[in-house]
Design a protein that fits this description.
Elements (H helix, E strand, L loop, with lengths): L1 H4 L28 H8 L10 E2 L23 H40 L4 E4 L9 E5 L2 H32 L7 H28 L2 H7 L5 H9 L8 H26 L6 H10 L14 H42 L6 H4 L1 H4 L4 E7 L18 E5 L4 H25 L3 H29 L22 H7 L2 H14 L14 H4 L10 H8 L13 H8 L29 E9 L4 H27 L8 E9 L3 E3 L7 E3 L1 H18 L9 E5 L2 E7 L5 E7 L8 H18 L5 H9 L1 E7 L3 E2 L1 H13 L3 E11 L3 H24 L9 E5 H4 L5 H4 L6 H8 L2 H11 L3 E13 L4 H24 L1 H7 L5 H15 L1 H17 L3 H21 L2 H33 L4 H18 L11 H6 L1 H14 L17 H20 L16 E9 L3 E9 L4 H26 L33 H4 L38 H15 L6 H38 L6 E14 L4 E11 L1 H35 L14 H7 L1 H8 L25 H9 L2 E2 L4 H11 L21 H25 L35 H5 L5 H5 L57
Parallel strand pairs: 6-7, 6-13, 7-12, 15-17
Antiparallel strand pairs: 1-22, 2-3, 3-4, 4-5, 8-9, 10-11, 11-12, 13-16, 14-17, 15-16, 18-19, 20-21
Helix pairs in contact: 3-4, 3-5, 3-13, 3-14, 4-10, 4-13, 5-9, 5-10, 6-14, 7-8, 8-9, 8-16, 14-18, 20-21, 20-46, 22-42, 25-44, 28-30, 29-30, 30-32, 30-38, 33-34, 33-35, 33-38, 33-43, 34-35, 34-38, 35-38, 36-44, 45-49, 46-48
Length: 1614
């Protein structure tokens, strides 16, 4: 509002009243005035008029920006095509695997139950026994026992999986204990399911044939069907029809249970209904609803709600119980069938070992009919060896078939291909199984030897007797089975219409933690959750708008608590809108770096504008919509001005930013753009520049004066956290619940000033945040950008770090460092206890400087982890940052990073017990992994040293001690230099040593290869090297976009001694150096400082002269100028002899000079006292820059001390005493930098008093500059040196002991060693004399410590490689889930035109809002053929360019201009733009857009008419707020058309900000939020109203105060 209140007042005739479009004869609908193009054309430029751009005829030639595709904008078409092809493969392969796995699991289950039948007899193949004979086989009891065990194992394995998953979550995460009654009910239902499963497997299915068994599995939905029927509420559409179908489905299920017992009249078949109903009890939970009209079902629904939190605790016990119960019931059934239960154990060894199968030869008279008894004496028998491994193979097929079906089915749900690749194959499993069984049984009956070479002849499915296909239709009840299949499909219809989000968790997808292996397809259909959250449909948008007020994207500041009734939830829908504040820190970035950053922000601005406009005008609800605002915090932004030492001006980096804004915008929008100059605000911390970008988002640059506020990156972060989350959020006049909702959906996008990214990268991070509310921060994949060997090294280093290390941290625990250059932080997480507040801790101890200031982003993540939040990594979210290109800059960067990394990880490990307790994602195993890494880091230099010693021995054929001496000398020398010499000398030596080591490493690589040749491929070194290189290569193959990073691996290998030995030593020994080390520039000095330097230089020069040749002869007697003697003589000035010397007495002149200086000092002090006592009577005090308060004083910006200046400060130049009076300046009203010619353009505005007070309080509390107190600095320096010495000692001793032990063991390897079993060398010697052959084996001998270390690193590598594979799968799933295939869903022709617009709304808006070609000059370089260049309309375009035109500078104006011209009649309106090549814009599509346009206009007309005279929702009346200068803000008006309402009224219902913010006591307005509300009142964009300095003469505007309720909107339209 401050921006609004300080607007200069305009006279009525020249205000916002009239539209210039009328002057040119435009129609009312096409009236586009300066309102939205004001960032380019508004007359605020100190007299310059840029509304109409005129071009001289001779100066029409153009230099439009060329689109350069680098970094994040590199061509992604190949990748997009690859991903789409990959998604097609995912569709097909997932479908095939789910269907195949389901059919195999179902078939093998029926195969196993077929063999469990007691006294099973079947025809045996006579191929091997006699073609002219018939044979019958009866399975022995051993065979039956084996298949019973197979079924037991198949049932138990998924339950064991559920047990492991439940135990892992309960031990490593949190759980809740259920109520006893609830647990008993769940226990009962699960027990019934287990008993039913045992009855089905061991009683029912063995008694019927396999085809009947497959059909029967479609009748297991009775209980789910009944509960689903009882859970239907009256709110459902077409409830009556659904209930009728439900009843029919349940009836069909019941018929399936009784049809065979009734028809076949076998007593044992009456177990079928009991078993099927009991099994169906296992899926009760998915079909009960807390909203059911029946009390019983509602009670079950409440148990279901509780199970979300208690499930895993319950299943720890239930899984074990179900396995035991299933086994017990199996023993009882076995006993009930007349067998001895002990046989299951006694025959176990025979069952899975060699045993005989007895084959009976049938007499010829039987004619192939199987006899009832085979014990006749005249029947011959043949013993055949059993293929006892068959049961194992079938069991493995069953286990893997079911597991693959489940895993790939879950994958299909996660990447949103559930319809085709999950529901379809699950529904097809039984029909396909029945089809195969019919075919197989028919073939086996006709030819018993058909499967002779595939399946053992004594094993097969239980086939129906006298099987023929026509019998199948009648006897097998095929018609009834169709009903059962349809009823199951209806009861499980929810699997065809999924509503889950991308990458939904297993808990959101399935009810039970695991699947049922024996009934895989029923488990997949009935266990898939059916109560997903429904998507908000487009037609619901109007209801949402009614709830929120006029605009869907309304800002949070316009809501007050009065708008919500006490009996309704106080949270508004708009509170859940995603709000992203991009917060960048800048210091000394180059122009190229700034442009990349600004282009990224411009892309975000364009994307946000497109999403906003799509919702506003196309009435499309965008689930990825967000509000966006950019804040840059510029450290040390000011320097001493050129004209005076007392004034400050923006430094060259700020001016560079201002100069590059237009260039960055022009590159993004592909047309020359001149942004409106920024508004300038003096602030307590320095200054502020505010731009409005073309997409209407704010770009706010905070300029920090290091003499007014604490500088450095961490304090900039404290600034934006407290400003955005403290002042802008917590001080809002709204309820606590609403603040909580807003905080949860507010994200800070932390950026560096050189980052390059695309909006999609941010969307992916927001996806992660929405998926997991416990996520505190998320980071993307950082790609280093630059050129040269150091950059190549970092390319590989960053690649390996992200591929392996970050992926591992993400998978097995939490990411420890979310880099500040590109990360998303949740506002609510930062606001938690011990995070934001603790982050403001001032570094008072030496350790703090290392942990807090050198690696602030890592410390912030450590604080989040210690509060229980998760930090994640998204490999699909790419960002590009400039990395150090020079050796020195790189070493200095890592000098900061290495100690801070070690300090933060040590802090986490020291607090591990409490962190594990509070953070569900950090386990003891993860802490052990981090301890291993920390040990590897600390002992890294020792390991590299030993590697070099060993490699020297192998490569140069020298002994161990010589190699040891060669390697130890340069390292000790480097350590000595690091302790004694300056940084530049240390870096020079490090560079020289690095070069030497790179050459040595090449020799080492050759030597290692030779050594591996000698030791063989089985040696530990060879295995480790091959596995390491292999893992890197596989990782590169799994990251095809980044595969070329692997080519830099050679440089990485050559740099190992430099980076893991020298760099670590340099970092640890320079632990006491806490300067930033990178991007350092020389600060500008005052004239006094320059004079002092000059004087010091002259003094130094004198001293050098005195110490010249023979000066040592004069030592002890001065320079002969300060002494004289009682007796002296000289000879022609050549020499002088002095006797009886004494000090020279001061002469008269010197005494007079001394007196004069004393008088001057006294006079100056008197003047200072007078000016303090009577300031008005004295010369105006200068705007002092240097603070004189002590470090303890926090009121330095409020108090002016009357300190007496030192002699240096009292020296004034002649210019200060000139007669011309100096202008009095106040840094909050008229600081000099505002008048700086380089930032002169643009209006000046002022912060509200509330915000000024906030900044003053914040600076007082946390951010006051720390004085250069010499005593304190000396103490800190001393403490840092002491910390350095302790750290170096501990580090040196650990490595020295490690090296000593391993080296001594290596020397005595022949006495103490471990024999390595692989890579054995066999030597064969033949002695001719004795004709003897001597065979000797030579084993590799390894020292124990070295072997342990190899295994230690190998273990880390295995962990990282495995985690990388899982993370890669997750990333690919994320990418596939975000990829849409138009041809795999409805084709465009099948979609209605409205659906087509809804689907491509953002894309349509992006093309309609393009600034390029807005004047009709579309791409003239297009076209193909040999004459393409010749056909360019060069002259026509140049002529068009010279014509005067109004330049449109905002995206929504460009959109409206094209949108309102849209018509399906292309002949009458050739200006209709082509939207996009991918989206075919047929006449029907354009007509649908035109209908949408007319609909929106009509809605807004109606809304405008309804709100005229209506009471304002917020209880706020129209006021005329007074700005700080006592002036009224300029009002706005609109043209009145003949219809009584203008097109601008259609697009602007609520007028401006004045009606929203003029308060009548309806709540305190948060002044701190005001400046965001710009001139046109919309929180995130300018309102679409007119504001034109050139009114049309025929449209006069009447001004007046409207008082009728809230209807007076202050726009002067009525």
């Amino acid at each position: 509002m401050s921006a609004m209140r300080h607007r200069p007042m305009a006279p009525p005739g020249q205000g916002a009243g009239a539209g210039t479009a009328g002057e040119h004869g435009d129609s009312d609908d096409n009236n586009f005035t300066d309102d939205e193009s004001s960032p380019l054309t508004h007359d605020i430029y100190g007299g310059s008029q840029r509304t109409i751009q005129e071009t001289k005829g001779w100066d029409v030639f153009r230099d439009p920006p060329i689109k350069i595709e680098t970094g994040s904008t590199a061509n992604q078409e190949c990748l997009e095509l690859t991903v789409k092809i990959l998604k097609i493969f995912a569709y097909v392969i997932t479908f095939i695997i789910v269907l195949t796995g389901g059919v195999i699991a179902k078939g093998t289950m029926l195969f196993m139950t077929s063999q469990v039948r007691k006294d099973k007899k079947m025809e045996y193949c006579n191929k091997d026994l006699g073609r002219d004979k018939s044979f019958v086989v009866r399975l022995p009891e051993e065979e039956r026992v084996a298949w019973i065990w197979a079924l037991l194992i198949a049932y138990a394995l998924p339950e064991i999986g559920a047990l492991i998953r439940s135990a892992r979550i309960c031990f490593f995460k949190t759980f809740k204990v259920p109520k006893t009654g609830h647990f008993l009910f769940v226990w009962l239902m699960e027990s019934l399911s287990a008993v039913g499963m045992a009855l089905l497997m061991f009683v029912v299915l063995p008694q019927i044939d396999a085809i009947q068994g497959a059909m029967l599995t479609n009748c297991l939905c009775v209980v789910p069907g009944i509960f689903g029927l009882l859970s239907r509420t009256s709110k459902e559409g077409k409830r009556f029809v659904k209930v009728i179908i439900d009843l029919a489905a349940v009836a069909a299920q019941v018929t399936g249970l009784v049809i065979w017992p009734l028809l076949e009249n076998r007593r044992e078949l009456w177990v079928i209904p009991v078993a099927c109903v009991m099994i169906s009890c296992g899926w009760w939970e998915n079909y009960v609803s807390p909203q059911s009209p029946l009390g019983l079902v509602r009670a079950l629904g409440r148990i279901k709600e509780e199970m979300k939190y208690t499930r895993y605790f319950c299943h720890i016990f239930l899984s074990i119980w179900k396995i035991l119960l299933f086994f017990t019931v199996t023993l009882l059934i076995y006993w009930a069938q007349g067998e001895e239960p002990g046989n299951l154990f006694a025959m176990y060894g025979d069952a899975f070992g060699p045993h005989k199968i007895i084959v009976y030869e049938l007499p010829a008279g039987l004619g192939g009919v199987l006899p009832d008894t085979l014990e006749s004496a005249n029947i011959d028998t043949v013993d055949v060896d059993a293929a006892y491994n068959t049961v194992v193979y079938v069991l493995l097929l069953q286990i893997f078939g079911a597991y693959l079906c489940y895993i790939f089915g879950k994958f299909a749900c996660k990447i949103l291909i559930q319809g085709f690749s999950y529901a379809f194959p699950v529904s097809l499993t039984v029909p396909l199984s029945v089809t195969f069984l019919i075919a197989a049984c028919g073939i086996r009956i006709d030819d018993p030897c058909f499967f002779h070479d595939t399946i053992p002849d004594y094993l097969f499915f239980t086939s129906p007797s006298n099987f023929r296909f026509n019998n199948f239709v009648t006897e097998q009840m095929a018609w009834a089975w169709i009903l059962w299949l349809l009823s199951q499909t209806w009861i499980a219809l929810h699997i065809w219409t999924p509503k889950c989000e991308r990458l939904a968790t297993t808990e959101k997808l399935f009810v039970q933690p695991m699947y049922s292996s024996l009934l895989i397809d029923q488990s997949m259909a009935l266990n898939r959750r059916r109560d997903d959250q429904a998507d908000v449909k487009t037609e619901d948008l109007s209801e949402i708008e009614k709830e929120k007020g006029d605009e869907y994207y309304e800002t949070i500041s316009v809501h007050t608590d009065r708008s919500s009734a006490p009996n309704k939830p106080s949270i508004k829908s708009s509170d859940n809108i995603t709000r992203i504040y991009s917060c960048a820190t800048m210091w000394h970035e180059t122009k190229d770096e700034m442009i990349e950053f600004l282009k990224s922000i411009m892309r975000m601005d364009e994307d946000q504008c497109a999403r906003r406009v799509a919702q506003k005008y196309l009435r499309v609800l965008d689930p990825d919509y967000y509000e966006f605002e950019t804040h840059i915090f510029f450290d040390d932004a000011f320097e001493i001005s050129d004209h005076s030492d007392d004034d400050i001006q923006c430094n060259r980096f700020v001016k560079l930013l201002i100069a590059t804004m237009d260039e960055a915008a022009s590159e993004i929008h592909q047309t020359t753009i001149r942004l409106r100059p920024p508004k300038k605000y003096p602030t307590p911390y320095g200054g502020r520049l505010v731009w409005t970008l073309p997409g209407k988002t704010k770009f706010i640059t905070h300029l920090k004066d290091k003499d007014r506020i604490r500088h450095r990156k961490r304090w900039s972060q404290v600034m934006y956290m407290y400003y955005l989350l403290g002042h802008r959020l917590m001080e809002l006049p709204i309820s606590v619940d609403r603040k909580d909702a807003i905080a949860e959906n507010t994200y800070l996008l932390t950026l560096d000033g050189d980052i390059d990214f695309k909006p999609n990268a941010v969307t992916l991070l927001v996806d992660l945040m929405k998926k997991n509310k416990n996520l505190g921060a998320a980071c993307g994949r950082i790609h280093p950008v630059g050129s040269g060997p150091m950059v190549w090294y970092q390319l590989f280093e960053y690649a390996i770090g992200h591929w392996l290390q970050k992926a591992t941290e993400h998978m097995i625990g939490c990411v420890l460092c979310s880099p500040g250059c590109f990360s998303l932080f949740r506002g609510k997480a930062l606001m938690d206890d011990n995070v934001m507040k603790k982050y403001t801790t001032r570094s008072d101890e030496a350790r703090h400087y290392v942990q807090y200031d050198q690696g602030e982003d890592r410390w912030l993540c450590t604080l989040l982890l210690q509060r229980g939040y998760r930090v994640e990594y998204s490999a699909a979210s790419d960002a590009y940052t400039h990395c150090p290109e020079g050796f020195n800059e790189f070493y200095n960067q890592r000098r900061r990073w290495v100690p801070s990394t070690i300090a933060n990880i040590m802090d986490l490990l020291a607090d591990a017990k409490r962190t594990i307790k509070i953070n569900d994602n950090i386990s003891l195993l993860y802490i052990f992994y981090q301890m291993m890494l920390m040990g590897g880091t600390i002992l890294g230099p020792g390991t590299i040293f030993l590697m070099l010693v060993g490699a020297f021995v192998a490569a140069f054929r020298i002994d161990n001690w010589t190699s040891f001496h060669y390697n130890i000398v340069p390292i000790l020398a480097f350590m000595f230099i690091c302790f004694t010499c300056k940084s530049n000398i240390q870096l020079f030596v490090a560079q020289v040593l690095s070069t030497a080591y790179a050459l040595i490493m090449m020799a080492v690589i050759v030597g290692t290869a030779l050594q591996l040749g000698e030791d063989g491929i089985g040696s530990p070194s060879a295995i480790f090297l091959i596995s390491m290189v292999g893992s890197f290569f596989i990782a590169a193959c799994l990251h095809p976009q980044e595969f070329w990073c692997i080519t830099c691996g050679l440089i990485y290998l050559l740099s190992i001694p430099s980076m893991y030995l020298l760099l670590i030593l340099y970092s640890i020994i320079n632990l006491n150096v806490v300067s930033w080390g990178t991007r350092e520039v020389v600060a500008k000095k005052t004239k006094k400082e320059l004079e002092a330097e000059k004087k010091a230089a002259e003094e130094a020069k004198k001293r050098v002269k005195q110490k010249s040749m023979l000066s040592f002869l004069q030592s002890g007697i001065g320079d002969n100028g300060d002494e004289e003697g009682s007796v002296e003589f000289s000879l022609a000035g050549l020499f002088r002899c002095i006797f009886c010397t004494h000090g020279k007495t001061s002469d008269e002149k010197q005494q007079l000079t001394s007196i004069a200086e004393s008088l001057d000092t006294i006079k100056h002090r008197m003047d200072t006292i007078e000016s303090a006592v009577d300031p008005h009577g004295h010369h105006a005090s200068r705007h002092g820059r240097r603070r004189t308060t002590s470090s303890g004083s926090k009121d330095h910006h409020l108090l002016t001390s009357v300190a007496e200046k030192s002699g240096d400060e009292s020296d004034e130049s002649d210019s200060d005493t000139s007669a011309e009076p100096k202008q009095e300046r106040d840094f909050l009203t008229n600081p000099y930098w505002i008048e700086d010619p380089d930032v002169r353009k643009g209006e000046v505005d002022f912060l509200s008093s509330t915000e000024i007070q906030f900044w003053k309080d914040l600076i007082d509390q946390y951010l006051y500059p720390i004085d250069n107190d010499p005593v304190e600095q000396a103490r800190i320096a001393s403490d840092l040196i002491e910390l350095r010495n302790k750290s170096v000692f501990a580090f040196f001793m650990a490595n020295a002991l490690f090296v000593l032990i391993v080296f001594l063991l290596q020397l005595n390897k022949d006495k103490l060693h471990i024999i390595w079993p692989l890579g054995v060398k066999t030597n064969i010697t033949y002695i001719e004399e004795t004709s003897e052959v001597h065979i000797s084996k030579e084993y590799l001998q390894l020292e124990p410590i070295g072997l342990v270390f190899v295994f230690f690193f190998a273990l880390i590598l295995i962990i990282q490689f495995t985690a990388m594979l899982f993370h890669r799968f997750g990333t690919i799933s994320h990418i596939l889930a975000s990829t849409e295939l138009n041809f795999c869903k409805k084709k465009s022709e099948d979609l209605t035109q409205d659906q087509l617009i809804d689907k491509h709304a953002v894309e349509i808006v992006k093309n309609l809002q393009r600034l390029q070609g807005i004047d009709g000059d579309y791409d003239n370089d297009s076209g193909s053929g040999p004459d393409r260049i010749a056909r360019r309309k060069t002259i026509q375009n140049l002529e068009k360019a010279r014509q005067p035109r109004r330049q449109i500078g905002t995206l929504d104006v460009a959109f409206k201009k094209r949108f309102l011209k849209l018509t399906a009649d292309a002949e009458n309106n050739p200006a209709t733009p082509i939207l996009t090549r991918r989206l075919t814009m047929r006449a029907e599509t354009i007509r649908a857009l035109e209908v949408r346009k007319n609909s929106v206009m009509a809605e807004r007309r109606k809304s405008a008419m309804q709100t005229l005279g209506a009471k304002n929702e917020y209880g706020i009346t129209t006021g005329a707020p007074i700005n700080n200068n006592g002036a009224l803000p300029n009002q706005r008006s609109g043209r009145v058309s003949n219809a009584g309402i203008s097109i601008k009224d259609v697009f602007n219902v609520n007028g401006g900000a004045a009606e929203i913010y003029g308060s009548n006591g309806g709540g305190t307005i948060n002044q701190g939020y005001e400046h965001v509300i710009d001139e046109d009142g919309d929180g995130n964009s300018l309102r679409l109203t007119t504001r034109n300095p050139h009114p049309h003469p025929h449209h006069q505007v009447s001004w007046g105060q409207n008082t009728n309720g809230g209807g007076g909107n202050g726009t002067g339209r009525l």
